[in-house]
Amino acid sequence: MAEGDVEDQIGVIMRIALGVEYDGTNYHGWQRQNNICTIQEKVEYALSQIAAHPVEVICAGRTDAGVHALGQVIHFDTQAARSDRSWILGANTHLPADIRIIWARHITDNFHARFSATERQYRYIIYNNVVASAILRHRTMWTPFMLNEKLMHEAGQYLIGKHDFSSFRGSGCQAKSAERNVMSLLVARSGNMVTIDIKANAFLLHMVRCIVGMLVEIGKGEKPPSWAKEVLIARDRKVSATTAPAQGLYLVGVEYAP
What's the pLDDT band for 251 if we cut at 50, 70, 90? Predict the structure, then answer.
């Protein structure tokens, strides 16, 4: 729908999709909870002010406490006639500085931010230096042990494809199946920064952070790259490594069918 057509839709329920960027440091994750500050709560409040009615949003993927997003996608339904620009600028005036609406689209009512998604991409950033960074402490994981990113990348290739990822599943995960399809996993270094980019159709609770914990042990030389395959086929969280901290994780983007 073109923005010029919005004024003709008064009284008609419309579905709006938004792109959201946030620094998760000061929040207890995405999902709204009683008496706890969450990103969903802040976004719904801001949108409700612009819509002039209560708004409930659905996201592409819930993020944990301390996790950040560059490309979270949400949708909501409204009768309020507003242009895409108005949703962006209006909502941002009611949001704290660490949460921003970065784009808006009027979309068809069969679009669903979560169920219509075909791929999700996360990035994990490790600051690999002898001394920790004061500036990056809430935005990266720090390790003083020199990591071999090539061994980490080699290990990550064992996880490509459709597998049961029970070995990388958080204890509170409510997903009915642990089967997920990992399309790509890339590990690279730029100076002191080691980045792990992983793309899959969907993720289990703490799945990326569990994978990172395993790759870090391999990068430190404590385990060979083939250990990744052993952990995967074991389908047992107890045989894997410690879960990496939340602050290094970013939801980079969500893909949808054309």
Answer: very high
Nearest to 62 by CA among 199, 248, 205, 247: 205
Q: Could you please report the per-residue DSSP string of 1-39?
A: --GGGGGGGTTS-EEEEEEEEE-GGGSS-SS-BTTB--H
> CATH 3.30.70.580 region(s) of the chain?
3-107
Residue with tokens 């994981």: 141
| Residue count of the chain | 258
Q: Cα(14)–Cα(90) distance, rounded to whole angstroms? A: 17
Which residue intervals of the chain bear CATH 3.30.70.660? 118-256
Indicate yes or no: pTM above 0.90: yes
Give the model's confidence band at 258: pLDDT under 50 very low, under 70 low, under 90 confident, else very high: confident
Catalytic annotation present for 197? no
Residue 192, class by beta-carbon neighbours within 10 Å (0-12 exposed, 13-18 middle, 19+ buried)?
middle
What's the start-to-end Cα distance of the chain, in Å? 16
Domain spanning 3-107: which CATH class is it, in words? Answer: alpha beta
The predicted pLDDT at position 83 comes to 96
**Helix or strand run (H / E) with residue 134:** none
Residue 62, phi-psi category: left (phi > 0), alpha (psi -120 to 50), beta (remainder): beta
Mean pLDDT of 59-83: 96
Q: Could you say which of 8, 23, 64, 84 is catalytic? A: 64
Residue 37 to residue 33: CA distance in whole angstroms: 8
Domain 118-256 has CATH 3.30.70.660: yes
146, two tokens? 């020199």
Name the least confident of 7-21, 60-74, 115-129, 207-221. 7-21
